[in-house]
Amino acid sequence: MQKQAAQQKKDARPWDQLVIAREFNVRRTELTCPAHSLKMMSKAADSGADEVILDLEDSCAVSQKIAARGTLVEALTTLDFKGKIRAIRPNNIRTKYFYRDLIEVLEAAGRNVDVVVIPKVYGAEDVLFVDRLITQIEENAGLEMGRIKLEVLIESARAMLHAEEIAACTPRMASLIFGIADYAGDIGSKEMTTEQFQVHHYPKAHTIAAARAAGIDVVDNVTLQFRDLEQVRKDAEYGAKMGFDGKWAIHPSHIDIINSVYTPSREELERALAIMEAYQKADTDQGVGAIVFGDEMVDAATLRVEWKKIAVAKRAGILDENNRIVERKDGAGTQQAGARA
Question: pLDDT for 161-175, tens place per residue?
Answer without folding.
Answer: 999 999 999 999 999
